[in-house]
Amino acid sequence: MRLNAFIAQATGISRRKADELIKAGRVSIDGKEASLGTKVTDTAIVKLDDRTLVQTSRRLVIMVNKPEGYVVSRSGQGSKTVYDLLPSEYASLKPVGRLDKNSSGLLLMTDDGQLAQSLTHPSKSKLKIYMVSLDKSLTSKDELQISQGIRLEDGDSRLELTGFSADRKRMTVKMSEGRNRQIRRTFQSLGYIVTKLHRISFGEYGLNGLEIGKYVKL
Hints:
It contains 5 helices and 17 strands. The chain is an alpha+beta fold. The chain is elongated. The two termini are 17 Å apart.
């Protein structure tokens, strides 16, 4: 955690104000004057003037194996939502990234905005892995075209395809982007319909046997 975020969480002041205190030389880490941008370890002793700061709460991250038919929203507008799968104390958590109603699999939820940003910002290029099924067999020509890049209305889409089934209707799809319905739109542009899309991995996080509809605290 960055020092300004640690101070803000421990004192209730803004991160901007925390930066001002750091610049003024009023913050120390393990007895040494701190500098802007420093990261705080779990064992560090942080002081503001002579006051030792204590982190009031640690971030909360959970992983849900989302079933098909659930929307990633608090307002389902008639549909079931991922919040229906969780106890009430997790109602304030926000989803990290997208997973549409007809897709299933790994969904991260957290109260840590910085973590969510680090996982979803394009510059971080977090690898996501999906198990995908199509309505018909994927030709070798179309496989090559997808691997080289498909032009969509919001930019090029390039997917890595591996692990084909014998009939070439099922495969593993790897990608580092995360635009809205990108996998579905990529295949649709070549005349295919994605009949099943299940995310099994997001960055360093994997389902690791988590049952569908269940969650685990990380």
